[in-house]
Amino acid sequence: MATVQFGVRSDHDEQARLSKGLFAGKTRFLPNRGAADGRYALGSADLELHPNVTGDFVQPGVGARLHYELGSGDLEWQRIELGLSARQYVGAFSFAAHADGGVVLGDNPPPQQLFELGGDLSLPGYNYKQFVGDRAALLRLFGSYRFNIWQRPTHFWRNYFIPGVSPGIGVGVQGAWTELSSAGAIFAAERLGSPGIPVSEPTHGARATVGGGITFFSDILHVGVARPVDHAAPWKLVVGFGTMF
């Protein structure tokens, strides 16, 4: 599948106006990341091999995705990404692997175009968006086993059903690397920070995490713990969608 897009966009830095939800508690909303202001023309192209494997679908097989975009105007940059995916089922066992790499080109790239890693979706066990770079690579491996119980929907009341919980157990391993390769990229990373959020930094070498726990609804939801393995660190609670701990 090939896709090409052209358009005109406008980016503006936006300060968060809410710090908490309807119910008071210890958890507060995170401040918005910093962004550069400007209007620009944007062109992008995507080429995907087996999109049902590379995207959010669960088809087995091997797939790949190549993405290129070019911004020109008040904000200027080029961004190239390559992703490889593989998935296989063996009875009640599921195995998945994703490898992603990317580079941002430009003398003064906008902060919002840099790669940010850390948190539940990438490198769980580290802080949210703890790492940043104009060069980045991410490898994720996952395996799960689904128990043969509660797989069918359960009638609740009238025409209402509770979906099949389909519980299982899963484990995941992730490794990543980021780099700020120029003075312009370093300046852009500094602009990402805002009051209440530490300035993100490159990984300074490879970083890795491991996690595991319980999955529900055929690996759609996971609850467990994760921690870095490249240095001593405590386990952290991880809750999220998808299969990756």
Provide an overview of this structure.
The chain is mainly β. It contains 2 helices and 14 strands. The protein has helices at 51-54, 183-192; strands at residues 2-11, 38-49, 61-73, 77-90, 93-105, 115-117, 131-133, 135-146, 154-157, 160-162, 168-179, 207-216, 221-228, 236-241. The chain is globular, with a radius of gyration of 20 Å.
What is the count of helical runs?
Answer: 2
Please give the domain count. Answer: 1
Helix % is: under 10%
Give me the secondary-structure category. Answer: mainly beta
Beta-strand portion reads over 45%
Q: Report the mean per-residue pLDDT as an integer.
A: 89
Q: What is the assembly state of the chains in this entry? A: single chain
**Largest beta sheet: what is the strand line-up?**
1-2-3-4-5-8-11-12-13-14
Distance between the termini: 29 Å
Helix-strand blueprint:
Layout: E1 2-11, E2 38-49, H1 51-54, E3 61-73, E4 77-90, E5 93-105, E6 115-117, E7 131-133, E8 135-146, E9 154-157, E10 160-162, E11 168-179, H2 183-192, E12 207-216, E13 221-228, E14 236-241
Antiparallel strand pairs: 1-2, 2-3, 3-4, 4-5, 5-8, 6-7, 8-11, 9-10, 11-12, 12-13, 13-14
